[in-house]
Structures are given as structure tokens and as C-alpha cells.
Amino acid sequence: MKLSNIELAIEVAEHGAELVSLVCGGREYMWNADPVFWNRHAPILFPAVGKPFNKEVRIGGKVRPMGQHGFARDCEFKEIGPGLMRMIDDGSHAESYPYKYILEAEYRLDGRKVIITWTAKNVGEEDMYAQIGAHPGFMLPDYKPADELHGYIRYYDKEGRAVSPVEISELDGGNRVPHAAPVQFPAEMPVKSDTFNRDALIFEDGQVTKAVLCDKEGKPVLSVDCPQAQAYGIWAPKKEGCPFVCLEPWCGICDAKDYTGDISGRTYVHRIAPGDKYTFTYIITIE
To answer: Containing H/E element for 156?
Structure first.
């Protein structure tokens, strides 16, 4: 699927309803999915954000396999209208996720903004529990492997105020463990080659709802804004010469280490009643 206006041109793949290209002024902003570093562009995270402990969830008293970030990113969607794709539950993931659902992905352009909306609909007869989040990767501006500094990331809350977020957990094998002492990050954080040596940075409790990627001089390049975000992840793989970074707003989060409770008790999980839906929207703006 391709959409364009006078400012932007985007392309969305049917596989995973994934945004694979975002061009403005002849410049490509999306990461190219080079498998040497990371073989995705901007996957949808559903029905899990991050890694369930032991890659398992418990639904209806049964332990079920659930991979990191769920499975929607590897499902096929069908275009059903301009900018709109749909994936209907066909039972192929029932062992992991026994609910009946429809997942829709809508892409709209407004000037230099890409407005992305994912909607999970419960078409079954029982309450459904789900997390949902975004994982877009962007090329670092004017990336040179030998440089010490690759740019900056600025952080804002839902009121538009610059914030110096505090990380209260770190990742251990993909799950959260408490920091011995909370770590505060600057409102304008330098991106360096060692920034992600400990894996992703995760800011919980809605501290951050917007992140702005800036170049080495501090000039804004793009932003990823999601006022409803309950957590926000910043990540790049720990690989020498990695030329991209992911700005990830989430309505969900990976499990705390050793969590073995029901899916309904997962942090930032959402209950969707029969016939109801949960809508997640985030906006990419080329500055």
C-alpha cells in the first residue's frame, strides 16, 4: 500500500501492516531492515509488548506460549480501503491466544505527519486482554561509525513539557528488574555508540509520551508522539556500526522477571469487553 501527499510518501507492507518507507524531500527516514542489524522496519506489537516471562502467558488457567512482542508483526493483513488494512483471527494462534479478534491498521497523512492507528476489536464472547505498542526504527542523521556522538533524543510528556525521565527498571534477559537506584536521563540525551549497551531504555508510568530525534547539532529531525503511551522504549541493537535508533511508544510493557500471574495481571494490559475495541494511535512528524 502506498500513500502520498505534497510533503510525504509512505509505503506499508501487507506482511505485518508494517510501515517500510517514509520519504520526505527525497530523503528516506525509515530504517531499511538490513538483517545484519535488525530485519524489521516498524512492527506492530500485539497482543504482547516486550517479552512475557519465560515467553509464556496464562489464560484461563492454562500456560500458553507467547513470543516477545506477540505475533501480529508476522501476520498477513489485507488492504480494505484507502490507508486501511485488516487482519481477522483465523484460529492459527489459538494455542497462544484463544480470543476472537480483528486487528485493523490505518495510515493517514497530514502535511508532514503520518498518523498511525491500530484497533483491536473483541469479536468473541469473553473479556479479551491485550497490550499494543509501536516499534519504528529511524536512520540516525548523517551517521558516521567513527563519530563519538550520533545525535540527541529529547523527551516530552503529554502536556508538551520537556522532561528528564527516570528509569526505574532495567532489562535482564528481556524482563524488567528494579534498578538498585533510579537512573535519571537528561531532557536532551546524547546518542552514542555505548548508549544501548544495557539493552533498551524504558521509561514507565507515562513519563514520556513524545521523543524527538535530533542531529548532531541538536536540530530536530523527526518526532514520535503518542499521548496515551504508558511506557516509552528507546532501543538500538548492541552491534558495532549500528546506524539507526527506535523510538517506541507502548500501551504495554515486558513482564517483570519471575511474573507468573494471569494475563489479566500483566502490567499495562487492557481489558476489552465482548463487542468492544481498544485503539492505539501514534504520530510520526518530520520536523
So the answer is: strand 149-156
What counts of helices (H) and strands (E) characterise the chain? 0, 25
Q: How far apart are CA 157 and CA 88, in angstroms?
A: 34
The pLDDT tens digits of the residues spanning 143-187 come to 999 999 999 999 999 999 999 999 999 999 999 999 999 999 999
**β-pairing, 188-192 with 56-59?**
unpaired
Chain center to CA of 52: 16
Q: Which residue has the cell 530523503?
A: 27
Pairwise CA distance, residues 132 & 144, whole Å: 34
Residue 17 confidence class, pLDDT cut points 50, 70, 90: very high
Q: Smallest Cα–Cα separation from 22: which of 43, 38, 2? A: 2
DSSP single-letter state for residue 122? E
148 DSSP 8-state letter: S
What local confidence, expressed as pLDDT, does residue 18 receive? 98
119-151 per-position pLDDT tens digit: 999 999 999 999 999 999 999 999 999 999 999
* Residues recorded for the chain: 287
* 3-state helix/strand/coil string of 47-103: CCCCCCHHHEEEECCEEEECCCCECHHHCECEEEECCEEEEECCCCCCCCCCCCEEE
